[in-house]
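Repro case for the chain-ordering regression, as requested:
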Amino acid sequence: MTVVNVSAFSTICATRDKGRAFYASLLEHARAAGGDIAVSFRGVEFVTPSFLHETVAKLLAEEPSIVHSLTIDGLREFPAQELAKIIHSEDLDVEIRQTGPESYRMVALV
Amino acid sequence: MPRQLDAYAVGSLVALPLPASDLCIDLTQTTFVTPAGMTVLFWIIRQLREAGCRVHVEIGSKDVANYLCRMNFHLPFSGDVDLTFNPDISAAKIHKADASSSLMEFRLIAVNDSGDVESAALHLLEIVASQAPGLIRDRDEFFTSIAEMVSNVERHSGVKEASIVAQTVKDRVRVAVGDNGCGIRRSLAVLRANQIQHMPDHAVNLLATEPGVTGSPFGGGYGLTTLRDLVAARGQALHIISGQGRATILKSSSDGSPLQFMTLGTVVELSLQR
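-- result from build under test --
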């Protein structure tokens, strides 16, 4: 499994600009992974919905086939809830399901 | 003049022309100032001073004088001899004598990039967490709220400066972020001119809280939505002040022509209960 550590990019992930800056790297990893990929937020002090929108949600929109192989780790309750709202608002036909403490996987709804 | 200068009363704050083109902001009847009220007061004074008006602020309540004093409200105007307060809020005897344990924070910040947004949110989080322990229910919620409020200034206002006011009242913390920028209507008009042209300002401000409205697809537009949902879930309060008719002041022109309107940018005040 390919693990993308967000903390290696930044431990404070608050803005859309930062999200956009990180997205290119995330997309590259996702395309190169060829299998399961985990986005890990362990070690990240704060992550906002705006950052998640520009990264995880955007990846799901632009690379829908990745849904089945994408997991998220180390994301606390509030940002995870906000990510679920964004995914719903963008009509991505994806649901985020908790699999353990601060761990989630994506489920395609269609 | 309003007894409580808050989000509902800021529209009634009017600077009256005095002889020699001076302006007097009358706070003689005001006994309480909220962060939104203080934010509006700051930007009105800033606008008037940048327009070259001499400004006098007449304060009636000792509590209000103490409040402005403890907030160091005068600091951004240090050395400005054409701005006066009665009583003098920079006086040390007012500043320190009646200090209580409640949190009060006021500062003007640069908002140029992501680093400024993050610094502002971290700073306020640390201040509130250290001075009012127990008031922050969830650090992620609080950080996100402040970051989104400041980020909106950076992304949408067209200006590079914001004011932040934080205040604790009993079991809640109120935070107001304000700017002197283009306001929500003008910002929204870039993408939704036809939709909003006949809408009143309060409806435009409400529209801005809908998901995705202020941005193109995957272009943003969730900042105010996040604040709105947070408030809905916690039974708190969110005030959005932006547009003509709110925080509007009358300015006396130097050539004696009729009074003209000036408008403020945007103020967002969030009240979070423990």
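Ordering looks correct now. Residues 139-157 of chain B form the longest helix (19 residues).
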